[in-house]
Amino acid sequence: FEIGLETDLKEMFRVGPSASVVAIVGVALPFLLGFLYWWWATPDLGAHPGDVTDTMVAIFVGATLTATSVGITARVLTDLDRIHTP
């Protein structure tokens, strides 16, 4: 949330294309890795309540890793005082 408040929209549009590639990879890769890990590396435990499937759990794991990775990246860039550099 804090990072969004400090974002300069003019700067964001200036670095748009390259930043878009980084953002897409930064979101897609953790999601894909989390999803695939759960889908292939964990056995079917059969312990899901109700109508919850392995696919739903895999999506949840992927989404959790995505949210965490974006927050960590933003915090590291802020701590290194690199958040406003192209």
Concise structural overview:
With 86 residues, this protein is mainly alpha-helical. The protein has helices at residues 2-5, 9-14, 16-41, 54-79.
Write the layout of secondary structure elements.
Elements: H1 2-5, H2 9-14, H3 16-41, H4 54-79
Description of the structure:
The protein is mainly alpha-helical and 86 residues long. The chain has one domain. It contains four helices and no strands. It has helices at 2-5, 9-14, 16-41, 54-79.
Taking pLDDT < 50 over at least 5 consecutive residues as the criterion, the unreliable ranges are none
Number of strands: 0
How much of the residues is beta strand, in percent?
under 5%
Helical percentage: over 70%
Search tags:
mainly alpha, 86 residues, elongated
